[in-house]
Amino acid sequence: MLDDRYDLAFRLYPYARSPDQDAAAPVRHPVVVMGAGPIGIATALDLGLQGVPVVVLDDHEGVGQGSRAICFAKRTLEICARWGCGQEMLDKGVVWNLGKVFHADRKVFEFNLLPEAGHRYPAFINLQQPHFERFLVERVRRAQDVGAPIEIRGRNRVDAVAVADDHVTLDITTPDGPYRIAADWLIGCDGASSPLRRMMGLDFEGRVFQDNFLIADIRMEAEFPTERWFWFEPPFRDAGASCLLHRQPDGIWRVDFQIGWDIDRAAELREENIRARLDAMLGAGVGYEIVWSSIYTFQCRRMTRFRHGRVVFAGDAAHQVSPFGARGANSGIQDADNLGWKLGLVLQGRAPEALVDSYCTERRHAADENILNSTRATDFITPKSATSHLFRNAVLDLAAHHAFARPFVNSGRLSVPCAYDDTPLNGPDALPGSPARTRPGAPCPDAPLGAGFLLDRLGGRFVLLGIGTDAPGDIASGGVMAEALTVAAHDDPTGALAERYLGEARRGVYLVRPDQHVAARWDHVDTDAIRSALDRACGRG
Amino acid sequence: MADLVTTPNIADADAFYADLIALHDGLTEEESAALNARLILVLANHVGDAQVLRQALDAARAAGRRDG
Ligand SMILES: Cc1cc2nc3c(=O)[nH]c(=O)nc-3n(C[C@H](O)[C@H](O)[C@H](O)COP(=O)(O)OP(=O)(O)OC[C@H]3O[C@@H](n4cnc5c(N)ncnc54)[C@H](O)[C@@H]3O)c2cc1C
């Protein structure tokens, strides 16, 4: 029996019988991805674009209804741009920079994200998660049209796995009955309640927050500006402990009420009760239609290890955070970005399996950073003691009058990518005078380059970036090539590239990983040093 | 590196102490507690230095112990 656990927004991969179902023995695939949520599709896209054959299994036939995630960060858009689907997300999304913070019936202050100039993508867009996922699947379809070996199998539910040293066997249920396949590598992208984790008896430790959040996505023609409005202790009737109003595309608004732990779920979800809350908040006479509503609770937790032999976990299956800060899908996309090139090199025999362990080290560090940030935000929004509540309100009272108190106000520290400071893949940081933001391990910041942008030229392979000096030509080691890219002063029209990558230095050479993170940097070209940094970045260090 | 000043540093200690107490005149306990919290944040920001703040947190907590 294959039951739907949710309704579909877009039916994108209807069930079709696969020849594997008629094979005498389980057909073996290099990579199988379990789960076609945003992270599973992204992982498959990254691998498929490298020419690595990948099969994605999902027990549904498309994208679920209800836009859980709405805030997608610059780094996510940059990664999607590398995959070839950033622009359509930007075109559809709502760009916002202004936020207002309210406490009870007064405005405490407003902020502007003040995005730095000279980046192709804005700090954030708001976009319904179903659209985000649809754009990823559409990109997969275009890649398939030109031969990318990606297959998405809808209505394929994974029911059991047998994990061996060098492969995994999967039992799958379909509308035509069960069948079995094998995979050299299995990537678990099956979401926060990951059945795979359970099948393998793996832990998922962390903190449960005793609170319920009522979400309503409503369509209205109202004069609210494109801003993020957040209330602590909102003044409207039954609004709960906090409230968020945020705009999405197509005239849709996200309203999020924090309604406490002891609630009658079914009653709260009745339309008349949701409407009573919304009417009190929006004021009488504002017309709207409820597009989607849901009540959610959340946890902050992660697996101890993301890799278990030939099984690797990514996205919500590996780690879960509170929605404050929009770090769920955004961090999962970085998982896919991080894992893709490493697994690709390993499968092509150009890097040792140990490279995949660095995925676990790096992304676990990122998960800890995200959990720390989202836990702190949660504790500020929902103080856990009378004293904590006292200080929270003291901060809000002061913030209305003094700038110094505003950095304490925490309604979610919005997702920024993690710098992998302690990864074993990092090489030398040997460029005196250069900025910390571009140190080894950090994600490359964008900058105008010629008529385009720097990030358009990085990623997907190792790049040797020479700024103000000739890169020494392509350099190869152990079958991996770093491609030379030279930037002269006239390619840097605004000077932003020099400011972000050189600082006080006059020239520099950067080794940049396929996921656009810095591997090493120097003040001069030393071919041997570059070769050894390249080895190190491929897990041969 | 800066250190927390733990020797007398306020010229007229009696006057400041009187001001501090007077500040709470007419407030309920709850209002007083809120005022204290605001005052701590104002002073902490003025100090700024992370190490001094850490020492201040530790000094305040340690002086409350009665078991040593
Ligand atoms: C209210 C809310 C607001 C949020 N807001 C944001 C935000 O603004 N920004 C942000 O970045 N994140 C946000 N998130 C988090 C974001 O939605 C998740 O991080 C994201 O969906 C995780 O993607 P995933 O692919 O890892 O998992 P999922 O999206 O859960 O996908 C898992 C997939 O696996 C499939 N599956 C499960 N079991 C099986 C099986 N046995 N066999 C085959 N397939 C299976 C499921 O059908 C599903 O398609 C929010 C979350 C919530 C709840």
Automatic annotation (TrEMBL), chain A:
Checking InterPro entries in the record gives: FAD-bd, FAD/NAD-bd_sf, RIFMO-like
Could you confirm whether the keyword Cytoplasm appears in this record? no
Q: Where is the FAD-binding domain?
A: 30-370
The UniProt keyword set, sorted, is:
FAD, Flavoprotein
Record flagged with keyword Flavoprotein: yes
Q: Which domain of life is it from?
A: Bacteria
Pfam families for this protein: FAD_binding_3, Rng_hyd_C
Q: Which residues belong to the signal peptide in this entry?
A: none
What cofactors does the UniProt entry give for this protein?
FAD
GO molecular function annotation: FAD binding; oxidoreductase activity, acting on paired donors, with incorporation or reduction of molecular oxygen, NAD(P)H as one donor, and incorporation of one atom of oxygen
NCBIfam families cross-referenced by the UniProt entry? PRK08132.1 (NF006002)
Report what the protein is called.
FAD-dependent oxidoreductase
Origin organism is: Roseivivax isoporae LMG 25204
Taxonomy, top ranks, is: Bacteria, Pseudomonadati, Pseudomonadota, Alphaproteobacteria, Rhodobacterales
Automatic annotation (TrEMBL), chain B:
The record ties this protein, via Pfam families, to: DUF2783
Q: Which InterPro entries match?
A: DUF2783 (IPR021233)
What name has this protein been given in UniProt?
DUF2783 domain-containing protein
